[in-house]
Amino acid sequence: xxxxxxxxxHGDLSTLEHIKKEVKDKKIDYVVCAGDFTFFEQHIEFLTKxxxxxxxxxxxxxxxxxxSEVVEILSKKYKNVHFIHKKVKKAGNYAFIGYGGGGFxxxxxxxxxxxxxxxxxxxxxxxxxxxxxxxxxxxxxxxxRGYVGNRDYSKFIKxxxxxxxxxxxxxxxxxxxxxMGKARLIxxxxxxxxxxxx
Length: 198
What we know:
By secondary structure, the chain is an alpha/beta fold. Helices cover 25% and strands 27% of the residues.
């Protein structure tokens, strides 16, 4: 499976056109958007339509610039746009688990409650898609503030069959990667990153 992941494009149409070209040229199976595809929801209907026109299946969560209910309603207009906040989307031997929004908390009891229900009887390898990064990695470390990511995300990654965790939010850490247990952690940035899974 070939994934093109990106985050925090903030309505940049030239970047979305670049991603569309990559989808076609590299034969991408899934595009994953880890939130903040708008700038405070400006032109959100238009941008959701643009996501639907990328030429493949789109896995989507909202960021701190979008409201979950708005994104969910708009996503339902398009068969190939899958809004996965607090949901599972299975794809062969893999299961995408999504949790959007946030980005400013060290702990998230709602995430813990939601994911504990989602992973019950789940046998597939997990691809976790969050807007905020997990805690204690290259993805969430800021020079003046230390580690600012979410500790509950880190616990989930360590305690479950997570092989890939995609997040964004921190522009300072675009294109950074790390490892946590068997999981590959990626902040793909707004230009996106291609990830190939067996």
